[in-house]
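Reviewers of the previous submission asked for a worked example of the structure-prediction workflow described in the proposal, so we include one complete record here. The input consisted solely of the amino acid sequence. No template or homolog information was supplied to the procedure at any stage.
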Amino acid sequence: MKRMIVFLLLFIVACSILYFKEQTKIDDFDFYKVTFVSKDYKEEFKNYISKNGNQYYYTFDNLQSKNFNINSLKLDGVVYYLDDNIDVNKLLNKLDFFYQGKNVEDYQIYYGYDADIKDFVYVGGKKINIQIAKRSNDIVLGSPLILTGY
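From that input alone, the workflow returned the following structure tokens.
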């Protein structure tokens, strides 16, 4: 009987942890614009493209991004422009770890890692797959880094 009670308690704890992790994913935020960065050129997105060096920037507003199948692109990164009602501290606390970088052009820079995101780069010897830049009401989030500028 004791084993059954212990098993049930462990099961409930495990389910609670999984439920909490599912409810706090990093992609639970609102954005007004998103830019997909890729070396691939897709004619079907030609009205949404700008080019910088050897990379193409495919920029959509929130509603447009839901109307296109971006899965056909091999992405180098994604940059989200977040609504100013986002609490950056809550966003940072959803990461497995984060640290504050130096200020750049009046933006406060944060680097972090989310184990649910498979791609990463090394910054300062640490695995990083989220970069956040915040200045007053401007919030930009990039994965693995902000590749478009702030």
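DSSP finds three helices and ten strands in the chain. We consider this example representative of the routine output the project will generate in years two and three.
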